[in-house]
Structure formats: structure tokens, C-alpha cells
Amino acid sequence: MEELRDKNGLTEKEYLAAYRPGDYVKPSVAVDMVIFSAANKNTGNYRLLPQKELKILLIKRSGHPCLGAWALPGGFVEPNETTEQAAMRELKEETSVENIYLEQLYTFSDPGRDPRTWVMSCSYLALIDSSKVNVTAGDDAASASWFTLNLETTDVSFSEHENGFTRVTDYHLLLTDGDIRLSTTVRHTVDRNDTGTCSRYDIAENNGIAFDHARIICYAVERLRGKVQYTDIALNLVPEYFTLTELQQIYEIILGKPLIKAPFRRKYGALLAEPTDKQTSDAGHRPSRLFKRKWMSD
Amino acid sequence: MEELRDKNGLTEKEYLAAYRPGDYVKPSVAVDMVIFSAANKNTGNYRLLPQKELKILLIKRSGHPCLGAWALPGGFVEPNETTEQAAMRELKEETSVENIYLEQLYTFSDPGRDPRTWVMSCSYLALIDSSKVNVTAGDDAASASWFTLNLETTDVSFSEHENGFTRVTDYHLLLTDGDIRLSTTVRHTVDRNDTGTCSRYDIAENNGIAFDHARIICYAVERLRGKVQYTDIALNLVPEYFTLTELQQIYEIILGKPLIKAPFRRKYGALLAEPTDKQTSDAGHRPSRLFKRKWMSD
DNA sequence: CAAATAGTGTCTTTGAGACATTATGCG
DNA sequence: CGCATAATGTCTCAAAGACACTATTTG
Question: Quick check: helix, strand or coil at residue B222?
């Protein structure tokens, strides 16, 4: 290899030794995590099978800005770590959980998204199975709480126009934890024509969710809905041993619609689950076979 | 609304007025773009239909680091703009193209990815149709060049182990432009077990591609391969009027495998294309009907 | 036995994959 | 007419969707 020299006659080694970072304004970069879990809702009747609910973890802000509002767990990325390592670190600090499914979601960079200063958010989607959640509950992060998530599509309008179309989807996001109800309306606008695409999430009404986190949550649910259909991502919400009905319930709460049992079991049961000899017990009806996860290559 | 006060007795307004950004080390954030296009390869024979080739735009580095190597177009994000706006701005500056398909890809944040300092790269996938490319060619960015892309999967190994599996995919990325041949081997390792997932791209051999850009290119091709199958993203690589054979060729070069004509036309032809009265001419064989894009909602 | 869920059988319809056949313009 | 591509017909097979039926436990 020849030693290339630049227009100032410097080799790369010399250039780097003399390099001083400029005085440009730089953003802070935070990671924010949408941590999903699927928990059993207690039905009063002991004979009925418990229903699953989709949960996400939020933390109550104890300082400005957005004091008192609920925010996604997260924190700033430190030098000498990747955003993924930062997410892992924050996860451990805030929930004392260590190894869970983690996937980068999107980097939100609207200049005004944090009123203090220029902060980008590299967001992550995390999934944790409900059996590990209980460990987390008694954590020292006093104001961390699992909220039940309901994302309803309230309106979809689709209009074709000159060389393209506009699609507007209105979401109503409802997060509940006991008496606490956080409610937000998010409008997802997609505008397409032959010169490009524009996709934006606008928060119309917001009640109690910090910063632009309602938008990040909607984005995360959309990603989860998409990926659940062609990957084994849902297995991360399920304990080591699970029934196929549990797995189906997870699919149903993610997709927000009921699925038919037989085809579900044929498709996902064969693809994602391996039968074991174990069975459920303590149910007021016929016991169910327990399955183990079967890993899909992709 | 009550005026909430924090533990120092400040309202949000007072807090923000007094806020001073701390002296933490912050990263620089750049955007890097993988700009794809599909161009005709000239076959010598006038009777034969031209074949399509997948191209990406690279820029030769004229300064350290990676002097002389070829890099993705991009630049630093400035205050008061989003990463997407930065990508649009750089796109216009470097290629004088204004409205094209743009989609955020991934934020790469390995601390050592830039030898100068801490630089994260928020990468974007861009698609441009070949009829607009010619406008770009005579640009003032003297050392910008369209490289023909060939990404070959040279080896896949899959091994199941205790509670999970490891999949290793070796890619050989070859970029050619006339006599210039840039060649890189990238290894994609996915390691899964019941406590999490680890996915990494390691550059094994690298000949002429700057920074970690080979990895970004591989990631972009994987995304393109995935999305082409369930979205109308491929329409962005095609001019206003196109033949179904052209569209099929685009699918074939993206997926890297031949497709059968009849089912392709039934599926994508009906879904993505609208027949017009126009026809091709100047071909040494039967003319072909020209189609217009039909927009899919999703 | 009744209630409730577990688990399977089967019919219909849809569509992918594969191959064959017909159609058409150019030289 | 022959070449090369355009465009469509049709057969097979696999799987999704829908519904019905049988099986098994508890109280």
C-alpha cells in the first residue's frame, strides 16, 4: 500500500494526528425504548381462559420538561458505546432485565421534539415475556408502570389525485394503568406522487404522554403488526413453555382482530412451536399441550 | 391547566428559560444515502432486449480519511433540520435531483466507524428512475459515479444450538464502473437464543469502499429485497411509462433470481401497473404495451 | 352431564409455479 | 419466412379461510 497524501501533503496518519473536531453544533442523541409485554387479564370466572393484553412500560417524569407526564424509558448515548449498547444499559438500569429482544426502530429528529435543546431519539422496540415482567415489577424505579395498550384505527381516508394519492389514518392510542388513562390522537399522513413520498405522524390531541413519545409508540405498534406476520418475533412475548392458544391470543392482540383457530395452528403452530410432553393444569376444562419455541431462520 | 413546579419550585417556563445544555460529549450525526437506480446494459445485438443492471451512486473521497476510496453521498445534519431534510438537501447538492423516494434505513453508531471522531450515520435508502439519472450524470461533482452492483451470497451456514441458533451469511459485494472494481466481503451473523438476538455485519475484506459503507450498502440491498416483495417500492425505479418486462427485470436484478413471466404479470402487473394506449417502438421485434404506475395503498 | 377449551377434518377458494401456446412486428 | 419478444391459457399443487366435528378435562 502506498502512502496517499492529501492536498496539504499529509498522510492519513499525519492528518488524523492533527485532526481537531470542529466547533459545529452537535445534537444530543438519546435512545428511547418501547418495551412490549403480553400479560393475562384476570377474568372473574375461574373456568374461563384468561385473555391477553398488550402492555408497554412507561416512566413518570419527575422533572421538567413534561413534569408528571409519562415517558418511554431511555437515556442519552454515551461515548464509546453503540446506540444498541446504550439501550441495553438503560434497560438494565431502569428495569433490571438484561437479555431481551431488541430491535432498532427509527431515528426521530424533529428539531423541536425536545423543548430544551437539539435531541435526536434513536428508538428501539423491545419485547419481553410476561414471566420475566414480574421480576421487574418490584423495581426501585418507583414510578415505572406497565400500561395496557389499545391502539384503535378510528378513521382511514384514501384519495387518489393527480399522479398519486393521499392516505390519512387516524389512530386513537389509549394507555391505561388502574385509574390512570393516557389518551392521544395521532394522525398518520402518507402522501405519494411520482416525485416522492412523504410520511408523517402528527399528534393531534395529547393527554399525559411526554414529548413526541405517542408517535414513537404508534410507530412501534405498526412495526410489530407488520413483523408478526412474517417473522417469529412473537415468540419473544411468550414464556419458555406456552400453549398454542396463548400464542394465538398474542397474535390477536397485536393485530387487533380475531384469528381462526385451525389455520392458525397449521401455519404458526407448525412453524414456530415444537410440542413437548408437558400439559397445563389447574384449568376448569381440558388441559392443553405445552409447546417450546422453534426458531425460524428468517 | 395547573402550573406544575419541580423540586426546585420552578415552572416549566422558568425551567426552560434557565436551561443550559450540559458539557457532555455529543456525537456528530451524518446522513449517508444508498441511491439505487436501474439502468439498461447495452447488449451488442440490436434485436435483443437490453438487460437491466442495479446501480448505486458513489463519490470518490478527495481528502482524508479514506482518501481515494469511494463513499456513499452524504453529509452532516445541521441544526433546525431533520435527518430527512438533511438527506434531501445533500441529495440536491450532490446530484441536483430533488424529489425522489427516500426512506430511513438504519442508524449506525459503532464508536470507531469514523477514525476522526464520534460520528453516527443515519442512513437512507433512495430510489431514482433511470430517466432522471442522465440529468445527473453531467454534474459538477466531478468524481461522482454510478457503479454496477452485484451482491452475491457466497455461503450460508445455519447451526442450531442450545436454545437457539446461529446463522452466518457471507456476501460478496462487487461494484464496478468501467475499469474500477470495488470488492468487499461482508459477513452477516445472526445469533439467537431465548435471552435475545444479536445481529452484526462484519467487513472481512475491503477494497476501495470508504468507512463502513460496504455494510450500509448490504443492509440497503437486504431492505430493498424484502420490501420489493410486499410493497410497490419498485415503481420508483421505473420511468413514467414502462413495460411489464422492464418491471420484471427490475424485480429480477433486485432479487437476484429469474421470475416466471405469467405469474409475475398476473400478480404485479395487475397490482402495480395500469395499461395505456402507448407502445414501444424501435425494437427488433413485436412492440410492447406501455403501462403507467398504479399506486398501492400499502 | 354440562361447560369450556383442545385439537382435527375437510371443503372451498385463491394464487403461486410451471409450462405451453398464440400473437405480432421487424428485417 | 424466421427471429425475438409480447401476451395469454391452463394445469397442478400448496395454503388461507371458514366451519364443523370430535376429544378431554373439571365440577
Answer: helix
